[in-house]
């Protein structure tokens, strides 16, 4: 079978801290050449002239909940990966709190099989830790799996790891990268009981960041970091949400040498507690969206490299579920389709450079998780690419939302930029608001 060749002409290539005009030659799944000017050598080369649009490496989202198996009324690997490629996300790492939970090798491989048959984007999965499955954790091959996910607060089933002795054993025993959700359950429980006494179950949404407070986040994340330092474990703190927590991280070590890293999510960079009045439970996340000052300090830590990665924590629920009263409304929301354009909107507002967006959403996840041949626009790397017209306004509405749940916290927001093309492993999977009927995703591999 003849290898398909694609030539992308007249691109503004965003890669490794610079933007330069040039062409990208793709042969089969891989980038063959990146140069100022490349000519099509044969007539069967597919030429795409992007006319000065910006080409980013495909975004790698290190934290998503695609809800399959068991919660497929909210989303599936097919539906949510389809939305992801429409947003320029070409690779995702999915979390273990599905039903059943991904806490055995057997259940992990079942998810890989689903993704192999249905995913539009490249995929890997986190293995889930519990108080009782250390034996299973030790069977996981770190070359084949993204890492280990521990819920140190806010989880489902039996995935809350709250036994201190077990936690230390896990940290000491595994060579997997450990990613953690940090909120102190005892603090949250106390705060919630006080608010239920005052309001009953219909607690005002504005109380969410008071219940799931700065202190709850800091107690948990500082303990996790202390334990990582004590045991030498490789720790990645998901969705940092407070100014106080940003002081726990350093920018004095190159990312490849850091043992303790941090992530911030789109919603914590975009929203603040001032938005609860209008958005209500639609912006109910754990950890909670907090104050405008917290948001400002997260931006500072992101830009000065104390925070290493931008992700989504994409976690869809049905609109019916989200419209329940406070104590019954689940936390989480869908974000993969709008993450990259939301960050480019911040570029338009002079908050961040395009080069920094590529660093935090493409390069750094690849470095941090040691993902093979992805995250950069380089010869020999997989041709995962997101092409962006940064001056092509559009508005998010019900007709163009691709999430299975059918809603977005960005509904009615007008973005100045849009994704025009997405390539996954050299295959065009998305073009101009249409996801093409081709599932080109592959299992991510790791250079460990």
UniProtKB/TrEMBL annotation:
Q: Does the keyword Magnesium apply?
A: no
What EC number(s) are associated with this protein in UniProt? 3.5.2.3
Any single GO molecular-function term of the entry would be: metal ion binding
Q: What does this protein do?
A: Catalyzes the reversible cyclization of carbamoyl aspartate to dihydroorotate.
Instruction: List the source organism.
Output: Gelidibacter gilvus
**Which parts of the sequence belong to the Amidohydrolase-related domain?**
54-429
- Top-level lineage group: Bacteria
Give UniProt keywords alphabetically: Hydrolase, Metal-binding
Q: CDD domains this protein is in?
A: DHOase_IIb
Which SUPFAM superfamilies does this one have? Composite domain of metallo-dependent hydrolases, Metallo-dependent hydrolases
Keyword Ribonucleoprotein on entry: no
Q: Which GO terms describe its cellular component?
A: cytoplasm
Family per similarity comment: Belongs to the metallo-dependent hydrolases superfamily. DHOase family. Class I DHOase subfamily.
**By what name is this protein known?**
Dihydroorotase
Question: Which GO annotations describe the biological process of this protein?
Answer: purine nucleobase catabolic process
Cofactor (UniProt): Zn(2+)
């Amino acid at each position: 079978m003849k290898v398909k060749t694609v030539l992308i002409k007249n691109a503004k290539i965003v890669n490794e801290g610079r933007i330069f005009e040039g062409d990208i030659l793709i042969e089969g799944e891989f980038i063959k050449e990146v140069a100022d000017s490349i000519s099509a050598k044969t007539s069967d080369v597919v030429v795409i002239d992007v006319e000065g649009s910006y080409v980013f490496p495909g975004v790698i989202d290190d934290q998503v909940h695609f809800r399959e198996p068991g919660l497929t009324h909210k989303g599936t690997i097919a539906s949510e990966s389809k939305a992801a490629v429409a947003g320029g996300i070409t690779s995702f790492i999915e979390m273990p709190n599905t039903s059943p939970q991904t806490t055995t090798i057997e259940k992990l491989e079942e998810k890989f099989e689903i993704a192999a048959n249905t995913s539009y984007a490249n995929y890997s999965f986190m293995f889930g830790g519990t108080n009782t499955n250390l034996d299973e954790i030790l069977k996981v091959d770190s070359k084949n799996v993204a890492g280990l996910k521990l819920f140190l607060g806010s989880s489902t089933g039996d995935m809350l790891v709250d036994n201190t002795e077990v936690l230390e054993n896990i940290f000491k025993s595994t060579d997997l990268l450990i990613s953690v959700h940090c909120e102190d359950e005892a603090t949250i429980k106390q705060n919630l009981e006080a608010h239920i006494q005052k309001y009953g179950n219909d607690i005002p949404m504005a109380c969410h960041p008071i219940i799931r407070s700065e202190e709850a986040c800091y107690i948990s994340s500082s303990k996790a970091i202390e334990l990582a330092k004590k045991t030498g474990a490789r720790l990645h703190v998901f969705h940092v949400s407070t100014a106080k927590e940003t002081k726990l991280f350093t920018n004095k070590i190159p990312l490849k040498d850091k043992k303790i890293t941090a992530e911030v999510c789109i919603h914590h960079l975009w929203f603040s507690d001032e938005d609860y009045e209008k958005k209500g439970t639609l912006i109910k996340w754990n950890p909670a969206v907090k104050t405008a000052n917290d948001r400002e300090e997260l931006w500072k830590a992101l830009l000065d490299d104390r925070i290493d990665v931008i992700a989504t924590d994409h976690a869809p629920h049905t609109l019916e579920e989200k419209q329940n009263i406070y104590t019954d409304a689940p936390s989480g929301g869908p974000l993969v389709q709008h993450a990259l354009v939301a960050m480019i909107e911040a570029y338009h507002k002079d908050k961040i450079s395009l080069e920094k967006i590529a660093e935090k959403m493409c390069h750094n996840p690849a470095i941090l998780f040691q993902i093979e041949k992805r995250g950069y626009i380089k010869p020999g790397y997989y041709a995962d690419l997101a092409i962006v017209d940064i001056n092509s306004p559009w508005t998010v509405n019900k007709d163009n939302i691709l999430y299975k749940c059918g809603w977005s916290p960005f509904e009615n927001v007008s973005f100045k930029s849009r994704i025009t093309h997405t390539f996954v492993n050299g295959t065009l999977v998305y073009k101009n608001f249409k996801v093409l009927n081709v599932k080109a995703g592959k299992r991510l591999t790791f250079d460990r």
